[in-house]
């Protein structure tokens, strides 16, 4: 009986420690994804093309009509 209790407590402890590592890893992944998204937004080429006039857009072979729904408006 005492041996079973020791083995069971070791298994529970091991499972608890392993679960901490798994959940911590997921939080790091979320933080990395947020940082990567922020970097993409900072370096977005859309920031430059939105300022172009119709003639400049035509010269660069971009769509002439700017779709504002893509901006969230």
Question: What does this protein look like?
Answer:
70% of the residues lie in helices and 0% in strands. It is built from three helices and no strands.
List keywords for this structure.
single chain, 73 residues, mainly alpha, 70% helix
Architecture blueprint of SSEs:
Elements: H1 2-42, H2 46-49, H3 54-59
Radius of gyration: 27 Å
Query: What is the number of strand segments?
Result: 0
Morphology: rod-shaped
| Protein structure class | mainly alpha
Please give the alpha-carbon distance between the first and last residues.
68 Å
Overall mean pLDDT stands at 80
Summarize the entry for a quick read:
The chain is mainly α and 73 residues long. It has three helices and no strands.
């Amino acid at each position: 009986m005492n041996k079973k209790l020791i083995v069971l407590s070791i298994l529970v402890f091991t499972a608890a420690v392993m679960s901490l590592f798994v959940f911590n890893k997921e939080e790091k992944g979320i933080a990395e994804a947020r940082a990567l998204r922020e970097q993409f937004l900072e370096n977005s080429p859309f920031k430059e093309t939105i300022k172009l006039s119709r003639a400049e857009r035509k010269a660069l072979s971009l769509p002439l009509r700017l779709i504002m729904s893509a901006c969230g408006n």
